[in-house]
Design a protein that fits this description.
Length: about 350
């Protein structure tokens, strides 16, 4: 069964999600490569339906287990619990409204007035308050789950993370950049061995919706299909990497993007308990991810110029080679424009 704009309404009516007599509007949502995503509106209600692709919509071959959609539903419920328990102002997580064994879920739809934080960032609208909330919410989730044996059991499967992150990002760039392959494979080993909390796995600006209603701003957090029991370093590095890529992509706004990254980092550390090599591990992981978003299986679509790609490659390799580097040292390299040697 493959749902589309023509069949999804009848499917939801048969499942009792949409009233039988409802006249629905269906929109196909874009922006992702791993799922078919449809928004269904009727009356004053709306849901978003997700059905995973068995092979992701990218140029390279990228198979992935469709069971991951149930992992997403389970993780969305946990992130929703965190939002409720910590009562962080301006945070929302969609409720899971329906899930079936045909690997389909329906979740609460965010308001149509919402747009992605990625859109804001690329337009040059860089909100440090949004960045602060993003850092705080991530830390709250990691602290909520840390060492929870029941959550560890629920999210023990490492398959989604291997299929959607380690193989297409880390393993791929290790092959394409043999000069730093040893450092990348060391990072892979560390990620596999350092597992202590629930990790989102796709904590990025495209998965945060911004809804501004009057003076109130609400951030909606989405897309939990790569959630797993893993290393908290990955999530914070994943978000920060997107901000640093934009700082290189749009140097005229570099200070804004770097300040947003500092806000994510500072607010994360104010809530989370981190120790040991956490800081240098984050820098190393940013290095891998920066290379991956240029030369992995899912490069960022807006970086097209060869010069920008070369700068990102060089900065990523510099981070990987800088053993024991502090976050502030990396920040200063980006802020100054860096030598990228």
């Amino acid at each position: 069964m493959s749902l589309d704009a023509e069949t999804v309404t009848r499917y939801l009516q048969n499942e009792g999600v949409v009233p039988a007599d409802a006249v629905a509007r269906v929109d196909t949502l874009e922006g992702g490569v791993s799922n078919r995503v449809l928004r269904v509106d009727w009356g004053d209600d709306a849901v978003v339906v997700k059905q995973p692709f068995p092979n992701l919509d990218v140029d390279d071959d990228w198979p992935a287990d469709v069971e991951r959609v149930h992992n997403e539903a389970a993780a969305a419920r946990v992130f929703g619990d965190v939002a409720a328990e910590f009562d962080i102002e301006g945070v929302a997580v969609p409720d899971v409204l329906f899930e079936d064994d045909e690997h389909v879920i329906a979740i609460e739809a965010a308001p149509r007035t919402a747009w992605t934080w990625k859109t804001d960032l690329l337009d040059g609208t860089v909100s440090e308050s949004a960045a602060a909330t993003i850092g705080t919410f991530l830390a709250a989730t990691h602290e909520f789950a840390v060492d929870d044996s029941s959550l560890e059991e629920t999210f023990e499967s490492y398959g989604p993370f291997e299929q959607l992150r380690l193989e297409p990002y880390h393993e791929t760039v290790a092959k394409r950049h043999p000069d730093v392959a040893a450092q990348i494979r060391a990072e892979i080993r560390r990620l596999r061995e350092s597992r202590s909390t629930l990790v989102h796995g796709d904590y990025s600006p495209k998965n945060v919706l911004v809804d501004r209603t009057g003076a109130k701003t609400t951030l909606w957090f989405l897309d939990f299909e790569v959630a797993h029991w893993g290393d908290r370093v990955f999530d914070i590095a994943f978000m920060l990497n997107h901000l640093f890529i934009k700082a290189v992509f749009r140097p005229e706004l570099r200070d804004k993007y770097v300040s947003a990254a500092e806000s994510v980092w500072t607010n994360y550390q104010e809530t989370a308990t981190v120790e040991g090599s956490f800081e240098s591990d984050v820098v190393s992981e940013i290095g891998v991810l920066m290379l991956a978003r240029v030369d992995g299986k899912s490069p960022v679509e807006y970086v097209q110029q060869a010069e920008t790609k070369d700068k990102l490659r060089s900065l990523g390799k510099r981070a990987l080679r800088a053993e024991g580097a502090t976050f502030e040292e990396f920040i200063e390299t980006v802020r100054s424009g860096g030598e990228y040697q």
